[in-house]
Design a protein that fits this description.
20 helices; 19% strand; globular; seven-stranded mixed beta sheet
Length: 661
Amino acid sequence: MNILSFHFGHDSAIALIRDGVVVACQLSERIKRRKHFIGISDELIELFLSRNGISVDEIDCCALTSTQREDLYIENSGYFQLRFARHEDDVVHSAIEAELKKLDLPPIDAFLGKTVEQRARRLARVVVPHAINPVFRTSSTSFTFFPWMDYFSVATPTPYDTMERIAEQAGELGIDYSGNKFGFHFPASVTIFGKSMPCYIIHHHATHAACTYYLSGMRSAAVMTTDGGSGLERGGWWSYGSGNQLYPIAPHYLEVGGIYAQTAKAVLRLGSSADGKMMGLAPYGSPSLFDEKLVGNAFDYDVLAKNGEFPFAEEKRYAWERFVRERIPTLGYDLSTFGDPDSPLDAVNADLAASVQRIFEATLMKAARATADLFERRGLRVDGLCLAGGSMLNCPTNTLIYQSGLFGDLFVPPFTDDSGCAIGAALWVYHNLLGFSLVERSAILPADPYLGNLWAAESRLAGRPSSRALSIEHVEAAAIACARDIASNKIVAWYEGRSEIGPRALGHRSILADARIADNWRRVNLAKQRATWRPFAPAVLKEHASDYFEGAPPNSPYMLFNARLKRKDLPAVTHVDGTSRIQTVTRENGLFHTALSEFHKLTNCPVVMNTSLNGPGEPIVETPEQALQFIGNGYADVLYLDGVRIAPVEMAAREAQGLVQ
């Protein structure tokens, strides 16, 4: 069973699932070189199929999803055609389809909104995708607009209340959630390059839930999704995973992800990847704005608004921004640099970051406790907790939930943000709708992150696009040579096989440096043209992790948890609060593991600095040409490109003269 899956929202992607195994995933941003790229084009579809050797005749059905409120624009070329109508080969029940038929409501109208007012508001805030921008296109064409399906249909209660009371009500034993799995998709039809087939349009949070549960290796789990969605049920859901089935239970009405993003982007104006920057900024400040009453969901904020303690807005992110702008001037700060992106370390900005981080952590911990209470009330024994959604990129929060011991195990996939939505949509179809059994997963690397396209590296070396002359050396043991270069304090760009999917570099598209040398924190930030206060993460051989770090899961392969440093000899990867965003490395990580092992042999240190292989403001490198451009622009001393050592000619000449170790 081959399922071709499309995610049209930000961090758009195309994925292929074969018999429950994720075979490949292409992130559009890596191809188009625009971070968080929105939309899918015919060109991207053709590239994915050709790079992964897939014929459309091999595809059995499609899955399709998007980010909330980010609509579908389909090219009118005839290559990819979509209809909001059930395909004749599709026999899977859809509660949404049944409900719309009962209401005599066309899906396009329903997906825009249930009332005329909702539809008008919806159309007033349409997000135009990058895919139709001529800057990112090789040809011009017209498009057909399809509204995204912010819609679900369940026959069970979805009370709007505090998280504790939602858990109490949802935990009642008499409620049957088994039918809810059919309330999060709509049956459609697609024609791709002339082949017609069923297409399943999958609700956004269903894709997050599927992406984490079905890749966790667990046989049963509590599932919680949460992201930056704001308004109504968009903030996330609780679900129950049992065997090959996922049963949505209730929305929790969290909006703290939107509050976090609004602070980072609109108030502190931290630019691209603002949320991640604010997570790194928070340890420089004190949480002076933290107040326990600000810990809760949308309902809690509505209660505060009724009491006159908080502004009212349907989307709490906007109420929060107003609250902050009114509150900050009363706290005695120097306001001259408030919200100045060039002065993030000033007290007013760092303290705001610390405050929102503390609110975020406390809110997600409250949600985790409510999750545990819900499952205890229903008498459901589960293997652990599965988390997903962009909010779960927040490493300190994940770590607190892990350390709480509320659940026996905790899993977060490496593509927990919207980059994993195409994968999650296909898994929802394969397991939850079509009923196929779970697939055995590795205990060490249950979700394989190395899913990018295959590229023939050496065939492209002759036509290298570079502003500098490069020396190319075919070394016999690239991992050993790489270890020597790191030990010689070179900044090494490491390119290996398929790229990792998700925002974190995991050893296939990485910049590596010696973590023992304090100045490498400054040096690598300058090479990447980043602010020098921004921290870096360590990659450590798993068997030695406990010698250097504590407080994180012993298996932490995706750089999604913080650990506390037990010693002081890794200054380049030790943040100001004494923590590091850890990646444990094993043989499953490929030649990267060999390089780290060789570095350990040379230096008796099993840790290196690991950050993403990308130029300033760019997505992670995907292709050999992009890697060559990177080294040609002088962002690293040496590049290893699938075993080939490449360095600027002037560096190679100095090495030959013995001027460089």
